[in-house]
TrEMBL record:
Keywords: Dioxygenase, Iron, Metal-binding, Oxidoreductase
Summary of subunit composition and partner proteins: Homodimer.
Annotated stretches, region: Disordered: 1-28
EC number: 1.14.11.55
Protein known as: Ectoine hydroxylase
Short name of one Pfam family: PhyH
The keyword Metal-binding is annotated on this UniProt entry: yes
Organism this protein belongs to: Mycolicibacterium alvei
Function noted in UniProt: Involved in the biosynthesis of 5-hydroxyectoine, called compatible solute, which helps organisms to survive extreme osmotic stress by acting as a highly soluble organic osmolyte. Catalyzes the 2-oxoglutarate-dependent selective hydroxylation of L-ectoine to yield (4S,5S)-5-hydroxyectoine.
Catalytic activity from the UniProt record: L-ectoine + 2-oxoglutarate + O2 = 5-hydroxyectoine + succinate + CO2
GO molecular function: 2-oxoglutarate-dependent dioxygenase activity; iron ion binding
Annotated InterPro entries: EctD, Phytyl_CoA_dOase-like
Gene3D superfamilies the UniProt entry points to: q2cbj1_9rhob like domain
Gene: thpD
Homology family: Belongs to the PhyH family. EctD subfamily.
Amino acid sequence: MTAGRREAEGCSRTGLPIGDPTDQYPTRLDHAIEPIPRHEPAVWGGAAEGPLSQLHLDGFAEYGYLVAPETVSDDWLPLLRHEMDRIAADLDSDDSRVIREPGGAIRSIFEPHLLSDLVAQLVRLDTVLPVARQLLGGDVYIHQARINLMPGFTGTGFYWHSDFETWHAEDGMPAIRAVSCSIALTDNYPYNGSLMVIPGSHQTFYPCVGATPADNHDTSLVAQNVGVPDQTTLTKVVDQHDIHQFTGPPGTALWFDANLLHGSGSNITPLPRSNVFLVFNSVHNALTDPFAADRPRPEYLAARRVHAVT
């Protein structure tokens, strides 16, 4: 949201327009408010519109995620691992798309689909793009893509959060009509920092307290402290829904709703964990001004140019 719009409309301390009717999911507030039931369906397409059966669609609608084995075949995996190493070696050390752990190891690389023809092909696989289109009910584009690396011994985790909370507050994503696909490039064990999800939490939006700092992405991509539910809220949500953990061999994909609460612990084992992470957004859910930040995040974190993937 621009400064002019804030001044013209009158704003709260968080930068949100007072009584803004376009914001169905207020967050980054100066006081706690009640959780908000989601307004949109979790599944927009039917069984006839893609590869997922009605059973899979019903499971995704109920739990907010599904596991898809063999999304990427074995012959792809060595190529993707090699491409991951190539991208990391080719990028300048000060490239803003490279996020590093406090100790210097690479944590994430953004926009791999624009840096690699192979990753661009991965987006369009018959086991990937049609699933995204089916879940979101039509044409989609890449809102964000990255390679996540969690090296052995030193890889740090991601605290509990809803991606949509950040994409809404800092990117201006208006509605919950986006889905993430995390494709494992290495084995995901229960003990090497694999992703944990709170099934069913996607049906409720949990507003967070605390204004968005300027250039919050400079630190939040390493350690997220703003836009996360408080411990009391998390305890209640887990008591209600439990915790599931994603495990599986390389090539397995975890699809999950943009509003699903998830996180991961640190990796203190010698076994690295890496994945390609693709975020699909509906072309009918294009970004607007941020709802709780002074300015949009960079394009490599949140694409504002909507080009349907074909």
